[in-house]
Amino acid sequence: MAKGKKIKKAEDAYNAESIKVLKGLSAVRKRPAMYVGTTGPRGLHHLVYEVVDNAIDEALAGYCKNIVVIIHKDNSITVKDDGRGIPVEEHPTEKKSALEVAMTMLHAGGKFDGKMYKVSGGLHGVGVSVVNALSEWMVVEVGRRKLLHRQRYSRGKPQGGVKKVGKVNASGTIVTFMPDKEIFDEVKFDRDLLSDRFQELAYLTPEVSITFIDERLKNADKRKQVFHYEGGVDAFVRQLNKNKDPLHPKPITFHTTGEDVHTDVSLQYTTGYSENIYSFANNINTTEGGTHLTGFKTAITKAVIDYALKSKLLKAETNLTGEDVREGLTAVISVRLRNPQFEGQTKTKLGNSELQGLVYSLVYDKLRDFLDETPRVSKKIVTKVVSAARSRAAARKARELTRRKTALESGTLPGKLADCSSQDTEVTELFLVEGNSAGGSAKQGRDRRFQAILPLRGKILNVEKARMDKILHNEEIGTIITALGCGIGDEFDESKLRYGKLIIMTDADIDGAHIRTLLLTFFFRYMKELINAGRVYIANPPLYRISYDKQQRYLFSEEELRTLVATLEEEQKYTLQRYKGLGEMNPEQLWATTMDPERRTIQQISIESAVKADKIFTTLMGDKVEPRRKFIEDHATEVRNLDV
């Protein structure tokens, strides 16, 4: 925890009067989804992010160096920081401890007067009081002026006042809480999801070290992770491109610091074709972009084109677009600002209009300087951009072959598509089925009113290694695009989508897993909006059919089989069929086990961390063999349940 006279003065400045109150808390438990998005896994993990963000804000203010997050065996969480500690003195208007005010009143915190924190993503405000309201219990301990204070809460209500419980040599805050099982579907934290977020925060906040401990793990050596990256966004880009082939050895990195805005930008071109740009505002991942991202994209397009024309590497009549300039680009844009204007409670889009011009000026000036000073690297970048433009022109012609005039014009649908009669995307489903044999069974077994079947022949193209023109010339991909009707890439329009659910149905073997991965790679790279909208699913066909005592059951895993066999009486006869492929099931069996909405199990694909998903797809489908081999070795036992 932080020590010394400087911190004592900081504690004096950050006091009870700093906690501004806007009132109210009871509505949180009535409508939790309004505050954390959902009562599923995403909302559960959001609780941790809110508390950690408070500690990060202390680091951004210059008062915190270390954060520790612990998952206990019962799935309760502890977050420790060595910042100034939440004020505990009596609040001037509420006449109770400022700690209690911050923890039990909505919109009460240190960010509202703009004095204690120049920049913030969380703070002792909406976030931490919401976490308290949605927790079965919470205990907060605060070290200030060498005294340790503690208060306990139950579902947001104080269980007694703030008590002095001892002496400490340093300042800081410790928050321990148990999410409420009455609120959340399941209280079980995903270690990988939290680990990815903490790593991301450590890249964006090089001032701080984050220690993550998972006490649930049996292997003591794997319980602890420490994240600290002095390189900041430069190190972030290097990590993102770890399994890719960069066009230039070092990322192009630059910073600017002002009274109200601090900007960090790092970018690096690769030989690949995917665009991977991640934008952050006050450490919040602005997945929907915003003004800072717009400024970046505009600046990089103009800087590259201006340089290419000036150096005569580009003919004036060549028509380059921003999409061409960003092909193969990996970039991180991080801004810290005093008064961020986020759109919506989820804070996924930044709206500050002044940021567009500020980021544009920084990126354009710095990138033009870099291009002028490094002609060898610049030529490689321009050559790639021009090549992308040629490919785009070819892709435009190929796209015309797959584009339909209207979303529901069945006359241009693929011949092998067995369409459904309904046009209501609230109920319609498209099954992408491996092989003609399984496709035939699916067509006979389906409910024709709302289920469409599209059989796929063999494995589709690996889009990780191909440009758009080649992708659109692939027959199977073209068929999928035409069937869906919503376009691809920059032309994607969800309003034209013909089916509400897209279900990938492949054999439960290695080839089936490969086809699944190829399809998911395509959707992730070129129709990510479908995944974000929760429209992409994986079917779960059975592995076995077991018959005994004149009855039969379908089993979906080896574990199910072992459990059932163990319950059978000794010498009881049974017959077992192992399904090697979907085609071995007749239409009635396929309907009953895999397609009937009343009985089937389908897995919804989600992208909780775009950075992690990008890494997985690059590893599995990219050019480098060694990272792929290691990934498969590390995750071989999980392949049946591998999630994106």
Give the SSE map.
Elements: H1 5-13, H2 27-30, H3 33-36, H4 41-60, E1 66-71, E2 77-81, H5 98-104, H6 126-133, E3 135-144, E4 147-154, E5 157-158, E6 163-167, E7 172-179, H7 191-204, E8 209-214, E9 224-227, H8 233-240, E10 252-257, E11 261-269, E12 276-281, E13 284-285, H9 291-310, H10 322-325, E14 329-337, H11 353-373, H12 375-402, E15 429-434, H13 436-445, E16 451-456, H14 468-473, H15 475-484, E17 501-505, H16 510-526, H17 528-532, E18 536-539, E19 544-548, E20 551-555, H18 558-567, E21 575-578, H19 587-595, E22 602-604, H20 610-621, H21 625-635
Parallel strand pairs: 1-8, 12-14, 15-16, 15-17, 17-18
Antiparallel strand pairs: 1-2, 2-7, 3-4, 3-7, 4-5, 4-6, 8-9, 10-11, 11-14, 12-13, 18-22, 19-20, 19-21
Helix pairs in contact: 4-6, 4-7, 9-11, 9-12, 13-19, 16-20
CATH topology of the largest domain: Heat Shock Protein 90
Mean pLDDT: 85
CATH class category of the largest domain: Alpha Beta
Percentage beta strand: 15-25%
Q: How much helicity do the residues have?
A: 25-40%
- Largest sheet, strands/sense/barrel: 9 strands, mixed
Task: Indicate the radius of gyration in whole angstroms.
Answer: 28 Å
Shape: globular
